[in-house]
Design a protein that fits this description.
The strands form 4 sheets. The chain has a 5-stranded parallel β-sheet with strand order 5-1-13-14-15, with helices on both faces. The chain has a 4-stranded antiparallel β-sheet with strand order 9-10-12-11. A 3-stranded antiparallel β-sheet has the order 2-4-3. The chain has 2 domains: 189 residues, Rossmann fold, CATH 3.40.50.1000; 69 residues, Hypothetical Protein Ta0175, Chain: A, domain 2. The chain starts with a strand and ends with a helix. It contains 9 helices and 15 strands. With 270 residues, the chain is α/β, with parallel strands linked by helices. Bound molecules: magnesium ion. Magnesium ion binds next to loops. The site of magnesium ion has 7 residues, from loops.
């Protein structure tokens, strides 16, 4: 039967140098493949073994990269394996079909946002008024859909993020802290809604998912089976879901394990 695999990318399948979390001696470290170059510098990696597993997965299932990245940020990733027919960007705001955003889908997302949560401008105004230049490095808007801040984590007071989360919650927005980025994302803008749409279009009977952050929680709950790594926002919060396996691996080796689990499920249940 057709199996759909919707996986988060950053810190789930691909890792920046700072997120690799390698604990083995250097001489025994896995060989890494660079899959993203930004401004002429290497940025994201997976292990060579993970690259092989991802290629096998692309042949065995409908693999759907599912990311909060903007289309532009997604497009500079060069994943091994067959080019995915579908990709989910901007946390579900754009559904790429053969690399082109589906206009019907995007229109439906915009209509939901207009109906169900506070406008982006209100959130931007709050961020501009309340973020402290002591720890704020950049304030960005992504695809005119949501906002994020790049911060100095060591200087960022935990209380500030909690305050923002409460303020945002009352306006139908979610806050997620991932590495050096604080995301403010409308609640109706979800990876899970886009995954369901791809499942409908492909006729997939089994859905598998993986992710590490709060913005992946709805995706993990919506899938028939899910996996989360031993690092990240969900692991830190001790988050669990009925059909979600919490893996012990952390860093780039968790990415390899997740791909193994996907393949095992595709081969036994698919
Ligand atoms: Mg992630």
């Amino acid at each position: 039967m057709a199996v759909l695999v919707a996986s988060d990318l950053d810190r789930t399948l691909i890792y920046s140098a700072g997120a690799l979390a390698l604990t083995v001696p250097d001489a025994r470290a896995p060989r890494l493949l660079c899959v993203e170059v930004h401004e002429s510098r290497p940025l994201s990696y997976l292990t060579e073994t993970a690259a092989q597993l991802l290629t096998e997965l692309g042949d065995a299932a409908v693999f759907v990269p599912t990311t909060t990245r903007t289309r532009k940020q997604y497009e500079r990733i060069n994943l091994p394996g067959p080019a995915p027919r579908y990709a989910i960007c901007a946390n579900g705001g754009h559904l790429l079909v053969d690399g082109v955003s589906d206009g019907d889908w995007h229109g439906r997302v915009l209509a939901r946002l207009a109906d169900e949560c506070a406008p982006l401008d209100e959130v931007r105004a709050y961020l501009t008024a309340h973020a402290d230049p002591v720890w704020l490095r950049k304030q960005r808007v992504a695809e005119d859909l949501f906002a994020y801040l790049v911060v100095e984590r060591e200087l960022l007071p935990e209380e500030w993020v909690k305050g923002l989360a409460v303020w945002a919650e009352n306006r139908g927005w979610t806050v997620s802290l991932q590495g050096r980025k604080i995301y403010a994302v409308p609640k109706p803008l979800t990876k899970s809604a886009a995954m369901r749409e791809v499942a409908r279009r492909t006729g997939a009977e089994l859905t598998l998912a993986a992710g590490d952050s709060l913005l992946d929680a709805d995706l993990l709950l919506a899938a028939d089976r899910g996996w989360r790594p031993g690092h990240g926002e969900l692991a830190d919060a001790g988050w669990a879901g009925p059909a979600v396996s919490a893996l012990p691996e952390r860093g780039v080796l968790a990415g390899e394990r997740i791909l193994r689990e996907f393949l095992k499920a595709v081969r036994t249940e698919g």
